[in-house]
Amino acid sequence: MGNMNQNSCQSEQSSTSSTDSNRKSKIPVDQNELKNRLTPIQYAVTQLKATERPFTGEYNEHRDRGEYLCIVCEQELFASDSKFPTECGWPGFKRPIQQVNVALTEDLSHNMIRTEVTCSSCNAHLGHVFDDGPYPERTRYCINSAALKFMKKIPK
Q1: Quick check: is 142 catalytic?
Q2: Could you tell me the CATH number of the domain that includes residue 19?
Q3: How many other CB atoms are there within 10 angstroms of residue 85's CB atom?
Q4: Residues near 51 by Cβ (< 8 Å), separated by ≥ 6?
Q5: Which residue among 73, 88, 122, 142 is the active-site one?
Q6: Can you give the pTM of this predicted structure?
Q7: Structural domains in the chain (count)
Q8: pLDDT single digits (tens) 81-113
């Protein structure tokens, strides 16, 4: 695995640059419904751009075969075959199931330059993507477990 510097594995609440405000949600999100349906950490991560504490997420060491969906709208985001072990405390993925299922936005918060990853369907904050992942992709989608729902794949 590539270099993982301290900045790429920070557990801070983030806010994105002004380009984030130009995105329009394709799926209307009712904040009251989400507050009732999601846990406090799921709501904070997906709606307030918080970050769960490292090594505490349900899917950090998860190894089952299947797909990881957006906890808000259930859009398919990542397949288990693109997941790889990381040392930073959050699940790491090489690539999304389909690139169009995630949106990438420049994030200038916390005196860092990062790329925020959101669900392209509902704009839920998922995490960040870095260029220090395994070959050949070299990408590491560092995703909060709280933003995900796992659907196990039944063997044929």
Answers
A1: yes
A2: 2.170.150.20
A3: 11
A4: 10, 11, 12, 13, 14, 45, 127, 144
A5: 142
A6: 0.82
A7: 1
A8: 999 999 999 999 999 999 999 999 999 998 999
